[in-house]
Design brief:
single chain, alpha+beta, Ribosomal Protein S5, domain 2, 4-stranded mixed beta sheet, 4 helices, globular, EC 4.2.1.19, Ribosomal_Su5_D2-typ_SF
């Protein structure tokens, strides 16, 4: 099983993430931000990741540190669980509808973490979640996991739907990319010989 457990403590947050890449989508996310927990649940379920997230942060300030730092720790856990990346499919993509929202995610487990974001989210809250923090989460996730991640909104007006479609589309693309390629057992999917 490809699994990892990563903890990170700062003056702002204390976060532990456990991830299993070959799971069934069992999720227990406790961040203190209800909508974010809902998004992490969707991420794990649609990515078929077994995911445990225990995040305690300075929510009396706002949710920024908790959301961003959860992205950092989850990204580190994904990188650790992937190990040397031999035999993975490496690339994944998904175009996902969520009612009127339509979001495309495409990613490459390249070792070069970066986010390319074209999602129009309004300033404001979705429940107890600042809509602008979705981008911060994915920046932290992509950078720390070593994933080149493109996310593009093709349609949508409702912030809840757009954000949820984003989390689900990235999860589905990640699920494809981490999947073992039965024709490339033990091979590193790179012409450079390194990822």
């Amino acid at each position: 099983m490809r699994t990892a457990r990563v903890s990170r403590a700062t003056k702002e947050t204390n976060i532990t993430v456990e991830v299993g890449l070959d799971g069934t989508g069992t999720v227990d996310a406790q961040t203190g931000i209800g909508f974010f927990d809902h998004m992490l649940d969707a991420f794990g379920r649609h990515g078929l990741l077994d995911l445990q997230v225990d995040a305690k942060g300075d929510l009396q300030v706002d949710g920024h540190h908790t959301v961003e730092d959860t992205g950092i720790v989850l990204g580190q856990a994904l990188a650790s669980a992937l190990g040397d990346k031999r035999g993975i499919s490496r690339f994944g993509q998904c175009i996902l509808p969520m009612d009127e929202a339509l979001v495309m995610a495409a990613l490459d487990i390249s070792g070069r973490g970066a986010l390319y974001w074209d999602v129009r989210l309004p300033f404001g809250m979705v429940g107890d979640f600042d809509a602008q923090l979705a981008r911060e989460f994915f920046i932290a996730l992509a950078t720390n996991a070593g994933i080149t991640l493109h996310v593009r909104q093709l349609a949508g007006d409702n912030a809840h739907h757009v954000i949820e479609a984003t989390f689900k589309a990235v999860a589905r693309a990640l699920r494809q990319a981490v999947e073992p390629d039965p024709r490339a057992v033990g091979a590193l999917p790179s012409t450079k010989g390194a990822l």
